[in-house]
């Protein structure tokens, strides 16, 4: 199949497919006599695997490492499990950070409701509170 067909089947753009080739996520494709790329079902399966890993927020570096192991006929399962655990921990930490941010935003909103909303200079309104947050980092 040609690149347009591969793109249609996988939902990727031609540009993304070419990019994946350039960073060795996809192997160099076979070429027709006219230079057109030719793909087969193994390319579709590889892209689906990559898309699954990307959906789980794996980095392209991680994906390249996993695929290299598969290409060497080494089982990457232990690496994938380790990365899944690491990603889950990162997500958990990010959720806590976002919950803290949500609480801070709600607190600022509640306090901001008690301030005037027509202070153009931002000295005695919610904008002042936001500026103070910028000073404390």
Short description:
Helices cover 66% and strands 3% of the residues. The protein contains six helices and two strands. It has a two-stranded antiparallel sheet with strand order 1-2.
Describe this structure in words.
The protein contains 6 helices and 2 strands; from the N terminus they run ααββαααα. The radius of gyration is 24 Å and the shape is elongated. It starts with a helix and ends with a helix. By secondary structure, it is an all-alpha fold. 66% of the residues lie in helices and 3% in strands.
Q: How are the strands ordered across the major sheet?
A: 1-2
- Portion in helices: 55-70%
Q: Spell the H/E element sequence.
A: HHEEHHHH
User: What fold name stands as the CATH topology of one domain?
Assistant: Multidrug-efflux Transporter Regulator, Chain: A, Domain 2
Question: Rough shape?
Answer: elongated
Low-confidence stretches: none
Relative strand content: under 5%
Mean pLDDT: 91
Q: Please give the CATH architecture of one domain.
A: Orthogonal Bundle
Give the number of DSSP strands.
2
- Oligomer state of the chains in this structure: single chain
- Global Rg: 24 Å
Tell me the structural class.
mainly alpha
The tally of helices reads 6
Largest sheet, in brief, is:
2 strands, antiparallel
For the structure shown, list the relevant keywords:
137 residues, mainly alpha, Multidrug-efflux Transporter Regulator, Chain: A, Domain 2, two-stranded antiparallel sheet, 3% strand, elongated
């Amino acid at each position: 199949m040609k690149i347009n067909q591969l793109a249609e089947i996988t939902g990727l753009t031609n540009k993304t497919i070419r990019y994946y080739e350039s960073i060795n996520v996809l192997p160099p494709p076979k070429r027709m006599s006219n230079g057109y790329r030719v793909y087969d079902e193994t390319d579709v399966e590889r892209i689906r695997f990559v898309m699954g890993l990307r959906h789980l927020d794996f980095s392209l570096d991680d994906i390249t490492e996993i695929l290299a192991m598969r290409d060497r006929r080494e089982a990457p399962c232990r690496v994938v499990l380790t990365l899944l655990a690491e990603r889950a921990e990162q997500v958990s930490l990010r959720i806590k950070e976002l919950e803290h941010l949500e609480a801070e935003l709600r607190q600022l909103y509640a306090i901001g409701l008690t301030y005037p909303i027509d202070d153009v200079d931002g000295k005695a309104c919610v904008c002042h509170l936001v500026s103070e947050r910028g000073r404390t980092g």
